[in-house]
Each structure stands twice: as structure tokens, then as C-alpha cells.
Amino acid sequence: MQNDLHIYNSLNRKKEEFKSITPNFVGMYVCGPTVYGDAHLGHARPAITFDIVYRYLMHLGYKVRYVRNITDVGHLENDADEGEDKITKKARLEELEPMEVAKYFTDRYHRNMDQLNVLHPSIEPTASGHILEQIEMVKVILEKGFAYEKDGSVYFDVEKYNNDFDYGKLSGRKIEDLLQFTRKLTGREDKKNSFDFALWKKADTNHIMRWASPWSDGFPGWHLECSVMGAKYLGERFDIHGGGMDLLFPHHECEIAQSNAVTGHDQVNYWMHNNMVTVNGQKMGKSLNNFITLDEFFSGDHETLDSAYNPMAIRFFMLQAHYRSTLDFSNDALNAAEKGMNKLFETFNMIDDLTPANESSVEVSKFEQLCTDAMNDDLNTPIVLAHLFDLSRILNQVNDGKEKLTKEDIEFSKSLLQKYLFDLLGLKDDKDKDDAQLINYLMDTILNIRKKAKENKDYQTSDQIRDELEKLNIQIKDTKDGAKWGFK
Questions:
Q1: Regarding predicted confidence, which is higher, 401 or 78?
Q2: Considering Cα of 184, then 189, then 194, then 200, what sign does the dihedral take?
Q3: Is the distance from CB of 289 to CB of 280 less than 8 angstroms?
Q4: Of the candidates 301, 297, 293, which has an alpha carbon nearest to the alpha carbon of residue 443?
Q5: Whole-number mean pLDDT of the chain?
Q6: SS3 state at 283
Q7: Cα(194)–Cα(34) distance, rounded to whole angstroms?
Q8: Residue-by-residue DSSP string for 315-345
Q9: Is the pTM of this model over 0.70?
Q10: Alpha-carbon distance 57 to 53, whole Å?
Q11: Which candidate, 230, 220, 186, places its Cα nearest to that of 200?
């Protein structure tokens, strides 16, 4: 299939015309979440970015197999080779089984993705469901001489690999620089070099998630799962691998090394990375107290938020910046995005009320090619939105009697807005209600009733309200500043 789509290939640092390895079929693998906590704005960006890629490739006529993994084992604290597994730590603190934690947060992640209107992937494999395949890949890497065992753990020999291949070609790192800049890790004495990474780790006595292997009872390294599941579901060569910019090194660099060590060739044709989300110019993080979950955005239950936000406002906000650009959140920016989105929705909803003329005074057919060119230019959604705003302005001028359009041009405009605004950009317009504002209004009313009941010492009613909300997974917290609520 021939097309003019250009994408930014991180490996070659340039835009390239997209060519599928298999005609009319695209294999796409995207790194999904580690499910030990609620999804936040940073999780939303890759999900929305590659949802756009998925939608547009299908629009172009490709059959797409979209694989997005769930990491439920092996991802240790600080992305290191030592320390506690993130899910195991959460399970220990909550006194739960690790898979209870994984299931709980996976379900919540799926709910958030549905709220953002992110299409479900074709396949969503888990790391824990592919332990045997990961053990087999470690065996092959050992046989090829690119790994070594030490006290029950297996490490990838980066220096040995670099003699035959180019470790660092994706991120631009040089192996001689890694010795100086790789952070020191506890337990590094197990490794030949500090930048070697774990393929299999021997579990200590307190480690809950463990499996039998030829080397020890242990668990796979974090990087291994994606190489294994990409190969299993998309083959030794596939088209697109995506994820956040923070995964470029070391995660994706290690994936390349593992796959090359096994097959002798690159597994991925195009690497695509979305840039990070910042909050008022600072990287989002719990340590900076600017970490906001998606549920908090949708409920407004966070001290830095002015109000609750519709999930579609979050999606529209993301689309206003190119996926490779840093995206800075602020209440002002999100409010502006919501207003802009609603203006486009209002325009779309009034099109059927326009009075057609015998001839058009302005050209609208040009917008088809303009939007196509923008999408083909590395999925430039901000430019697409700019063109849709221009078309919206013309349609409003027609409504005001300042311009004229024929019936055919009015129908064309409606079809174009439908295709780009809803089908390709994935927005939804709920004309009957704004869910977030409605929920906030209802909850404020309920909490006021409960507050009055407590003031009147009607504790039975107060407790009943709390208990009934609990059944809806809504939790009430009484604080010195009043009652707060949030989703469990």
C-alpha cells in the first residue's frame, strides 16, 4: 500500500515515509503501564498518542495488530536491578497478594482509558503470563555468549554485545560514557560492568513473586518482557514500537540489545516516542507534590485543580501539542482547551440548522487536503485542530449570514468534522450532560446533606450516606477542613 504518511523514526532521528514490513498489515507494540498505582496524566499521553496512530493507520486501510503490554512483575524500584518489586511493595503495604494489586490497578487503568475514549488494543499480554517464554529467551542469549550467570542471577553483557553490535544507537549513548554516568547500584558487585542489566534475578527470601528457572527461583528483568511478547505476537520483525520518551533509555535500548542478541538483526522498523508531561514547567512526580491522577482530574479532588475536568478536555488538551513536544499542564491551559473543544462541538451541532445557498462564497473543500497533509506530517494533530477551527469559523459566519455555502459544501463540512474530530482524533461530545460537572454538583449536594445531619447529631443518616457511597466505590474522608471525596 502506498501512502504519504511520514513518521519520526527515533532510531534514525528523521522523518521517514512509512512502509509496512508486510503489505496492508501493521504490527505495533506499545509499552503499557506498570500496574501498582492509579494512572496519571503521564500515562494518558502515550495511550492517546498511539491511539491516534492506531486510528489513522486503520483509516489508511491497514490491518493493524496493536499489542500493549501490562507490566505486573519484574519492574523494581527506581528502574534498577536491585530493590523491591513495585507491585510486591504495594502488596506488602496493603497486605494483599501481588496479583490482587495488579488486577485492581489494571481494572482502574482500563476504566480511565475508556473514559478517555482510547480504543482497546488487539492484544494486551502480561509479563507474568509469559514467564516460560522469557526463560527461553534468556537461555538463547546465554548460548549466544551475550550474557553471564552470577549466583543465580543472569546479566546481559553489554560490553561483549557492543563488540558485535552498536549498544546505544537508539539513545545516542556511548559505552565509554556509561561507566562515568551510570548511577551506582547496590549489588553492583554481581555485574562485570555497572551498565549490564538483569535478564533474570534470583529472588531473596522475602520476594513473593518467583518462578523456577535453570538458574534460581527468581523473576525476569523488566526489559525482557517486551522483547519476548513483541516477538511472540508480532514476529522477529515488526513495524512500530512506541512508548514514552522516558523509556528510550535504558528500557528500549536494552530491548534492542536483547532482540539483536537472539536474532542477529533489529526487531523494530520504526521507534516512536511521545514526550513528557510537565506541571507548571516541572516534571510530574510525587516528590514535587504535582502528581495528579486521572481520577483526580475527573473528580476535581486535588488541591492544585480549580475544578473537575471532562475526560475529553484532557484528550483535547493532549492533542493541542505535537506528541514529540513537551506538554505543560496548568489549570489555565486545560480550561482554554475545554473551551476550544466545546466551540468545535457547538459548531458541529448547529450545522444541520444552516440554510444552504445556491452557491458558495468561500471554499471549504481545501480543508480535506490540509487536514490530510497535517496527519501525514508525523501525525501533526495541533495543525489538524487549527484547520478545524478555521472551518468552524467559516461555518459560524454562514450561520451569521456573512458567508454562503451550498448544501453539498455544508454536508462536506459536517462529514469532515465527523471524520477528524470524532473518528480520527477520538473525541466524544455528550450534549446532554457534562459527567464531571454533574458528579461534582451531586456530590457537593450529598456532602452538604451529610454535613447538616452531623450538625444535628443525626449520625445514623450521616453514616448511611457514607456507607451507600462506599457501595459505589466512592470514599468519604472527614478532615479538619471538611469532608473530601474520591473514587477508590
A1: 401
A2: negative
A3: no
A4: 301
A5: 90
A6: strand
A7: 24
A8: HHHHHTS-TTS-EEE-HHHHHHHHHHHHHHH
A9: yes
A10: 6
A11: 220
- Cell numbers 454536508: residue: 411
| Backbone torsions φ then ψ of 477, nearest 5 degrees | -120, 120
Cell readout for 289 is 507534590
Cell numbers linked to 365? 473543500
Residue 212 has pLDDT above 70, yes or no: yes
Q: Is 270 helix (H, G, I), strand (E, B) or coil?
A: strand
Phi/psi class of residue 133: alpha, beta or left (left: φ > 0; alpha: ψ in -120 to 50)?
alpha
Q: Report CA torsion sign: 450, 453, 457, 458.
A: negative
Mean of the pLDDT values across residues 341-363? 97
The C-alpha cell at 355 is 440554510
Whether a cis peptide bond, with omega within 30° of 0, leads into 250 is yes
Contact 371, 384 (CB under 8 A): yes
- Contact at 8 Å (CB) between 116 and 45? no
Sorted by sequence, the CB contacts under 8 Å of residue 5 that are 6+ apart come out as 17, 18, 56, 60, 375, 376
Task: From 488, 96, 78, select the one nearest 287 (Cα to Cα).
Answer: 78
